[in-house]
Amino acid sequence: MSQANGPRSPGDLFLGEIREQPQALLRLLDQQAEFDAVTKAMRERSPSVVRLVGHGSSDAAASFGVYAFGLLPGWTAMRDSISLTVYYDAKIDLSDSVVIGLSQSGETPDVVEYVTRARGRGAFTVAITNGTDSSLATAADATLALAAGPERAVAASKTFLNTLAALVWVAGGAAERGREIAEGLRRVSDQLSQSLESLEQSVSNVAMAFAYVGRMYVIGRGIEFGTAREVALKLTETCRVAAEPLTATDLAHGPIASRDESLPAVLEAAARVIEAGATVVASGNAAMRLQGAAYVLPVPEPPHPILSPLLSVVPGQLFAGALAHAKGLDADYPVGLSKVTRAR
Amino acid sequence: MSQANGPRSPGDLFLGEIREQPQALLRLLDQQAEFDAVTKAMRERSPSVVRLVGHGSSDAAASFGVYAFGLLPGWTAMRDSISLTVYYDAKIDLSDSVVIGLSQSGETPDVVEYVTRARGRGAFTVAITNGTDSSLATAADATLALAAGPERAVAASKTFLNTLAALVWVAGGAAERGREIAEGLRRVSDQLSQSLESLEQSVSNVAMAFAYVGRMYVIGRGIEFGTAREVALKLTETCRVAAEPLTATDLAHGPIASRDESLPAVLEAAARVIEAGATVVASGNAAMRLQGAAYVLPVPEPPHPILSPLLSVVPGQLFAGALAHAKGLDADYPVGLSKVTRAR
What's the whole-model pTM score? Predict the structure, then answer.
């Protein structure tokens, strides 16, 4: 595949889509009427549980969704087991549930099947997808478009960011705070625009140092655990390293620290791994607080604490892209991966 | 620490506790009146959600609990976020919930704190613990004793098996099938007694071949995903290998296959990793179905499909013990670990 302005260099698509995120986020925010309608329908249902289903990056975003719903409307949200419903055919009462199916393409087979079954059992089902004509969109009661524009690199970036944004916006709407969250997201788009270039510079210097590292951990807790999962996934996908996401409890490269209630645990975990000889890259809006980190990739302070993952995932994306480049790999088309998760 | 019959050899405690599991399981089953009383109270509550909380092996057991509750009474169970309630202080309505706190020692600080808060907010709280005089037992409305007897090796074995058993027995009771499940568990105890010795022989031959392998994956899906998590944790704790649990969807050493609805996905994942050059150890009651596995560690067919993890975890425990021995490590006291998870 080549671009209009000449042949593609490896990693160009992925980097281009990372850079495009501030604009992609604004496109999502253009859909206020659609988001208002869905959140109104969700409030009317007043669900006992919000069930989030997705694979890969969508599942990492779902980890964040658990916090967005827990902290904004105070609703119970969970990453539901797809196999329980789709493969084991468990007879769980879903009539009291809202289901949110997450899939970039909208064609992940078992997510589509889950949503189809859940709708049949009376759940209110919402698709959040970049594929508005997809099987998932057809299967669900309502669809919210990610509106990220076509994503061509196999590793997701802008669709992940917009999935986070869609989830927190819906959760905000469920708490009747949708306007405030949209306002915050607009501010995040500005912050991303302003910080991307300098961040890109800092990251490429850091990444070179890790070209021969075979094992990495990405530590994040609470609202940043989804970010840690997504960054670990990017590193695994694009750089072929064994990257594992850890909560600060598990316990050592790369903690993501937000200035929130989870910070003490992340700082403690980082201190432990530094003592054990690991090289630490600190990121997040509290990155400066991590003593002894070899590299620091700070990100702006979000307008609202719950929005911090939208800013803190970006250094991780850029790091994965730069590290793939340093290793001579093509981040756009990782060997053995395809864009649509054919999970069964 | 030394044993009555002379000085301890490295790994003796862990192996002794693995061997003791058939008897430990029978001790759990002696508590029918206590289990009946708790499941009756749970049914009366008819909860919208069962919230399972624990760290490490207890959290792996919780992964199984999600399936036990989903498949037996058809209840929604989830591994709840401890940080959402304990650190972020999210205002989630818990009055409609049953909470099950899982901790071998009963002293894991944030599990105790979670249960205390949940009880204060009206949840019906149950402690499942080996520490019947522990902080967790004191904090909860009701306590179910694991009755595994003192566990001295740092890596859990018999307390994990009894936690699985307690969860499936409680779930069975919630479905008014407690007697049937207890009967099945009694049969599992027999099967373990009969198979342990020959399994121990086969495993020690297999483990030698892996003494220099640095990275392992343990693949399991559905009801066996908790088993995969626990076996990966044992390998990480006792053998210092980077072992990662994967669902069959993620994707390549060591699949655990149950003859159930998840089998096709596990077989497919195994075929993929064999093609990619991985050495595969197949275990579980459908181990013989994995074509091309280098080693096969079959386990008996359980009396009821939901009980299969109690049988399939044992080869993994034995493998971890034998591999630690092959590597000259002490499985009883892994460096850097302590028996009580001091998670915060």
Answer: 0.92
